[in-house]
Design goal:
mainly alpha, 257 residues, single chain, 9 helices, MetI-like fold
């Protein structure tokens, strides 16, 4: 009977949470609906976008692709900066600090423009894809480095002493002991970080790269259906980012530090 009572209470709590979740979501949707219907001349014509569904899908695909590439490269470069920032060679350490401070102090929009119109021109590189990925990778790498630092500081330093006792060299210590724990600690913020990268990829429209924002903006200029375009844009970005944010919440609950 005791177990039955516990199971019934657990089921009741799950149903209660589901009901409140659905009601809160419906409240937000109702709010969006009320805003739309009260906009002057709010006669929406989403059908104007039907002939361009393929073009939208291409931009959507490119947004996901470049975001994943930027995420992977910034993850790797952030790890490299984590090491160079801890270097005993002051020149390398200070160089890492300067790069980090420049990125932290610069607007992302400015970084993208500088990379494409100045650095790209100086290096005689014309690829919008390469320069777009490079600019956002360089921008996000110092932020990734901070995640590594926070994760490293969360690790019990007694483990490093044990590694020395067992004769581990630096590479073995990081490969088998430190890095796996750092990744485990970083998993929740990493999914949120990917969400930020996806939203930030829209800035690549400034250099004419045909990602989601650029393609939808092009369709808006052809159809003059601007409100519909922004609503579609919002829905598609949320379609990518909300699952990632839900994954972040899930990982934070599952992974106990």
């Amino acid at each position: 009977m005791n177990w039955l009572g516990k199971d019934s209470n657990f089921t009741y709590m799950k149903i209660k949470k589901a009901i409140h979740y659905i009601l809160s979501l419906l409240t937000l949707l109702l709010g969006v609906y009320l805003v739309i219907i009260n906009i002057p001349n709010s006669d929406l014509h989403f059908e104007k976008y039907i002939p361009y569904l393929g073009y939208i899908a291409v931009g959507f695909g490119w947004t996901i692709f470049i975001s994943l590439i930027i995420f992977i490269l910034s993850f790797i470069l952030g790890f490299f900066l984590f090491f160079t920032g801890r270097s005993k060679i002051l020149y390398i350490k200070y160089l890492t600090n300067h790069l980090t401070n420049i990125m932290f102090g610069s607007p992302m929009l400015v970084v993208v423009i500088v990379f494409y119109f100045f650095i790209g021109t100086a290096l005689n590189v014309n690829s919008k894809l390469a320069l777009g990925i490079a600019s956002l990778t360089i921008y996000f790498s110092p932020f990734m480095m901070k995640l590594y630092i926070s994760a490293f500081e969360s690790i019990d330093k007694n483990q490093l002493v044990v590694c020395d006792l067992f004769g581990f060299n630096k590479i073995q210590m990081y490969r088998y002991v430190i890095f796996p724990q750092m990744v485990r600690i970083m998993l929740p913020p990493l999914s949120g970080h990917l969400s930020t990268i996806i939203k930030s990829s829209s800035l690549l429209y400034l250099i004419g790269f045909k990602e989601l924002y650029y393609n939808l903006s092009t369709i808006q200029s052809k159809t003059f259906a601007y409100t519909e375009g922004y609503l579609i844009m919002l829905a598609l970005y949320l379609l990518i980012t909300i699952p990632l944010l839900q994954l972040t919440d899930y990982l934070e609950k599952r992974i106990k530090i």
